[in-house]
Design brief:
With about 270 residues, the protein is mainly α. It is built from 9 helices and 6 strands, in the order ββββββααααααααα. The chain has helices at about 85-105, 110-120, 120-130, 130-150, 155-165, 175-185, 195-210, 220-240, 250-265; strands at about 1-5, 5, 20, 30, 45, 50-55. Helix 4 (about 130-150) packs parallel to helix 7 and helix 7 (about 195-210) packs across helix 8.
Length: about 270
């Protein structure tokens, strides 16, 4: 659900199952289903002639495989919900979320647009992830694990720095969507929510890979120090925007950091 560009972190409540009894004169009043009517709760409402009419739901509130379509802000109908296994739906939602968070940033990537790009109903997004923030945390973790899987350990520092040093949004929030998502991620460090939990778990995975670059007895400590420095660089450059780091040439920052971290991770005890 959206309100002023932000979205709630829970699915819209299910229909209560109450019918609507038509009063003379056309006015409605809400009432419970008549006892002994034999109708399942929420199956419809009593029409003027005593017959039942199909109950109306809001678009996007139905379960998988039902016919109505979520609509994008421009009014174009999204692809109809697809009938497939829950795992395939989850993966499509994660893929759509990663793309839209990178393109637009966290705030502007709406639940409606993510569901539309995945070709599923919004209700399925909440069913699989619970909230937009939880989806963001899983998308971040998925992207990080993919980076770990595809990047040689000796190139991992450069790969992380490339993301931290990419063009960032200005103080008014204008700029690259990936930069805005990175800022949301860094601001979540230490918070008690799904994003922070994803960062903590992912950080442990990065530290394990960085530790393989050292053959010293304290390699786990050295890996944690390297990771802490990288996160600190991101916080200072992206969140705090402290100069000169915030305005420094990315190539120069990368040169200084990689040389120092190489000494930390590979160098002998001092």
């Amino acid at each position: 659900m959206e309100s002023g560009g932000t979205e709630t972190g829970a699915a819209a409540p299910a229909h209560s199952g109450t019918g609507r009894t038509r009063r003379a004169g056309g006015a409605d009043r809400t009432g419970g289903a008549a006892a002994g009517s034999g109708r399942a709760a929420g199956s419809g409402r009593t029409g003027p002639s005593g017959g039942t009419e199909p109950s109306g739901g809001t678009a996007g509130s139905h379960g998988p495989g039902e016919p109505d379509r979520a609509r994008e802000p421009g009014g174009a109908a999204a692809a109809p919900p697809r009938r497939d296994g829950g795992g395939a739906t989850r993966e499509r939602l994660l893929t759509a979320a990663r793309e839209l968070f990178a393109e637009r940033g966290y705030e502007r990537a709406t639940v409606r647009d993510i569901a539309a790009r995945a070709g599923v109903n919004q209700a399925l997004l909440f069913r699989h992830f619970g909230s937009k923030r939880a989806l963001f945390g899983e998308a971040v973790a998925h992207s990080g694990l993919e980076q770990l899987r595809t990047t040689p350990p000796d190139r991992l520092v450069e790969a992380v720095l490339a993301g931290l040093l990419a063009p960032q949004p200005d103080p008014e929030g204008h700029g690259d969507g990936a930069g805005r998502s990175l800022e949301t991620l860094l601001r979540s460090v230490g918070a008690q929510d799904e994003v922070s939990a994803a960062i903590t778990a992912l950080g442990a995975d990065y530290a394990r890979v960085l530790a393989t670059l050292s053959d010293t007895e304290d390699r786990a400590l050295r890996a944690d120090l390297a990771l802490a420095w990288l996160l600190g660089i991101g916080l200072m450059r992206v969140v705090i925007r402290k100069r000169p780091l915030a305005e420094a040439d990315p190539a120069e920052v990368e040169r200084l950091v990689t040389a120092t971290l190489a000494h930390l991770l590979e160098g002998p005890h001092t």
